[in-house]
């Protein structure tokens, strides 16, 4: 029994470049990001970003960052989430604009909203240590990413604000290759 549990754990947590929610893209994800007005950013997951020396974790990922015309806001998502034509939990959460009762939640609204729609942005559980996805060119740029069980991911605050009709960066409708099903 233990060998089956370990095999499943390896599939879910060790396969760094696999996403169960994606079909093999027929396009080049970084090219798609840049040709639609985004910027490809390499980010590394780190635990303990709220002070001291953070623990740099394995499996950096590439995100597409869409910045508003005036440069004041942005929204990021995994390249694989952006380019797949199949539904992902991140894309469905973005399109659905589900209302979540934030009064029952401790922490920031992006984090609470993420948890309320079935994702997580937590590194090591609820703690003051913090964690996030750190930009490779700026260690002070830490992104709060809402990750879902299908390995899709999107900016937690962009997701939260979108659920309230506020666009951060750019609207992903028409940019996500999976169309709005609602």
Question: Can you walk through the features of this model?
Answer:
With 182 residues, the chain is of the alpha+beta class. It has one domain (29-163). Helix content is 27%, strand content 22%. It contains 6 helices and 8 strands, in the order ααββββαααββββα. The chain has helices at residues 2-14, 29-35, 79-83, 89-96, 109-116, 156-163, and strands at residues 39-47, 55-56, 61-67, 74-78, 131-135, 138-143, 145-147, 153-155. Strands 1, 2, 3, 4, 5 and 6 form a 6-stranded antiparallel sheet that branches. Strands 7-8 form a two-stranded antiparallel ribbon. The relative contact order is 0.21. Residues 1-20 have low confidence and may be disordered.
Quick tags:
182 residues, alpha+beta, 6-stranded antiparallel sheet, two-stranded antiparallel ribbon, 27% helix, 22% strand, disordered N terminus
Shape: globular
Terminal CA distance: 42 Å
Total domains: 1
Please provide the ordered H/E string of secondary-structure elements: HHEEEEHHHEEEEH
Major sheet details: 6 strands, antiparallel
Strand content: 15-25%
Number of strands: 8
Residues in helices, as a percent range? 25-40%
Q: What does the radius of gyration come to?
A: 16 Å
Helices, by number, come to 6
| pLDDT < 50 stretches | 1-20
Backbone structural class: alpha+beta
Task: Compute the average pLDDT.
Answer: 86
Q: In terms of topology, how is this protein built?
A:
Elements: H1 2-14, H2 29-35, E1 39-47, E2 55-56, E3 61-67, E4 74-78, H3 79-83, H4 89-96, H5 109-116, E5 131-135, E6 138-143, E7 145-147, E8 153-155, H6 156-163
Antiparallel strand pairs: 1-2, 1-3, 1-5, 3-4, 5-6, 7-8
């Amino acid at each position: 029994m233990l060998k089956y549990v370990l095999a499943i754990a390896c599939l879910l947590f060790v396969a760094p470049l696999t996403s169960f929610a994606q079909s093999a893209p027929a396009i080049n994800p970084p090219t798609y990001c840049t040709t639609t007005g985004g910027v490809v950013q390499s980010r590394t997951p780190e635990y303990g970003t709220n002070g001291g020396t953070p623990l740099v974790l394995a499996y950096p990922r590439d995100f597409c960052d869409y910045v508003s015309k005036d440069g004041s806001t942005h929204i990021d998502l995994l390249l694989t989430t952006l380019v797949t034509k199949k539904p992902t939990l991140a894309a469905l959460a973005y399109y659905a604009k589900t209302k979540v009762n934030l009064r029952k939640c401790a922490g920031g609204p992006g984090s609470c909203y993420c948890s309320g729609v079935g994702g997580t942005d937590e590194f090591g559980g609820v703690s003051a240590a913090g964690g996030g996805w750190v930009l490779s060119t700026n260690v002070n740029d830490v992104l709060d990413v809402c990750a879902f069980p299908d390995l899709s991911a999107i900016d937690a605050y962009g997701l939260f604000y979108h659920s309230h009709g506020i666009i951060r960066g750019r609207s992903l409708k028409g940019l996500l290759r999976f169309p709005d099903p609602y």
